Amino acid sequence: MLSSALLLAQLISFSYAVLTPSEIDDLRVDILNAIDTFSNAFSPAADKPLAAHIVRLVFHDCAGPENEGTTHDTANNAIRRCDGCIHTSLQDHRGINQMAIQPLEPIYAEYQSRISRADFWAAAGNIALEYTASLSPKSGRLPRLPYSFGRPDCPLSPNGVTRQGVFGATDFPMAHLGWDPAFDFFKEQLGLTLRETAAVFGAHTLGKMHAANSGFSGQWTTHPAHFDNEYFVQLFNLSNEWDQTWHGTTNGFPQWHNAGRTANHAKLVMLNADYSLMVQMEEPSPTGAPYLNVNTGEVSCRVRGFGLYSAPQCPLEISFNRVRDYAADNQLFYNDFARGWNKILTNNQVNLTEVIPNAFVDRRSISNASHPPTTRNPATLPPTPTTTTTFFTTQSPTVHHPTPELVRRTQPPTTTLLPSASVSTTSGRETPSSSFCCIADKIPNWNGRCWGHRNEAACNANTNCHW
Fold first, then answer.
1. C-alpha torsion 186→199→358→85, nearest 10
2. Calpha distance 68→66 (Å, rounded)
3. pLDDT band at 419 (very low <50, low <70, confident <90, very high)
4. How many whole angstroms separate alpha carbon 375 and alpha carbon 360?
């Protein structure tokens, strides 16, 4: 086995080249062709699922621990950076290999003599964002994303080892928790500000959740192929009446759905991590216990103006104003997202060479007149469609003592609660279909996802879980 010093010397001695702006244009064509033709069991090619998978891949690579060795003992949890490696056997990364890494490998084969896999993935992430932003009909333009080269790959690339191969180990904050652990992670590990952290959550505009990968299912927005501020528009839309449900989840934790949707509106979902951009669910309730039960993921409060049934009002989170601002201004979202995204891609990297690319254009439409252009000049964009959704008022809340007035619609919608969970006949609130589930012990770097264990014996057999 090579020593750590020798491995480090090899990483340092290997000199990667850069791609020129014209070569980046060629790579854009290759990635766009892959995005347009890829589909899976969950999404047709028209939904551009590969774009979302690529963005997920890049985040999981760049926000994951580095490992300059070949075992979990050499992983460095304190340093997060892009290194072209994914520990695919961890629950966090389920689906990434078949839905992102493998579809990109034939393209990387053409570039691997020039650039590292980490550089290739980062560039592919930029391209996925550029392309899906160009498909959005909304006004605003994604700022030109810088392309940087010089990231070394880990020795096992594209495979990686960051944790012991135990069920439930994680590299990231848990999705069923709230804002506090998420913001701490983005701030301390990735160097993002509050604004940038909130904006980066907007990547959830793309793609869908799959129960086979995360235990959650559904999509955040109505157009999962468009990268824009729609995630914040839907989150901030009071008429959605976001409420928790266990329908569609397989991990024992609830997710949020737009329970106030009308018949012609698609079912959308959010996670606790998403909803926590709006409310302080970790804060103590009048009973003294936090509104969020960290073991079950249940949240006992709702945002002010919730009208389906009586529930305590959650205090507003410090990021509430960011959701409001991004919902109202697509360009502001683009600007803040681009800054946060670039920080993630360059975090803990040294000696990177930045290449300023040509402005993004779908060159396939230029070389082949039979294909209509997919990028548009903002000056000629149609206006953002007018909707009848009801939003929170734009009055700035006081974070610790919030008292914003919310606009109510005149007639609450008729809501059909889903049959997979039981409903209290007194409150109308959905409750889990079972009083028992397999949950995780509160251990650092353990993700709480003991799902998959369907009975008490199997659950308790895992020393990090309990029934």
1. 30
2. 7
3. very low
4. 8
**Could you give the 3-state DSSP secondary structure of residue 305?**
coil
Residue 9 amino acid letter: A
Q: Taking the CA of residue 358 as centre, how many other CA atoms within 13 Å lie in the half-sphere pointing to its CB? A: 14
pLDDT tens-digit map of 283-292: 999 989 999 9
Nearest CA to 218 out of 229, 239, 194, 234 is that of: 234
Distance, in Å, from the CA atom of 467 to the CA atom of 459, rounded to the nearest integer, reads 6
Structure tokens at 244: 């928790």
Residues in the chain, how many? 467
Q: Tokens representing 63?
A: 């926000």
* Residue 410: both structure tokens together: 């005149």
Neighbour-count burial of 1, counting CB atoms closer than 10 A to its CB (0-12 exposed, 13-18 middle, 19+ buried): exposed
Q: Are 171 and 314 in contact (CB under 8 A)?
A: no
Of the chain, the percentage scoring pLDDT greater than 90 comes to 55
Residue 404 near residue 230 (C-beta atoms within 8 A): no
- Contact (Cβ atoms closer than 8 angstroms) between residue 273 and residue 175: yes
**Tokens 């594209």, located at residue:** 158
| Cα gap 212→204, rounded to integer Å | 18
Is the distance from CB of 255 to CB of 216 less than 8 angstroms?
A: yes
Alpha carbon distance 148, 179 (integer Å): 30
pLDDT(327) > 90:
yes
Cα(286)–Cα(255) distance, rounded to whole angstroms? Answer: 24
Instruction: Find out whether the peptide bond into 158 is cis, omega within 30 degrees of 0.
Output: yes
The pLDDT-based confidence of 264 (bands split at 50, 70, 90) is confident
Per-residue pLDDT band at 254 (split at 50, 70, 90): very high
With a CB cutoff of 8 Å and minimum separation 6, the contacts of 96 are 53, 56, 57, 60, 86, 88
The pLDDT tens digits for 98-148 are: 999 999 999 999 999 999 999 999 999 999 999 999 999 999 999 999 999
Tokens 């804002």 correspond to what residue?
A: 179
Alpha-carbon torsion 322, 325, 326, 332, what sign? Answer: negative
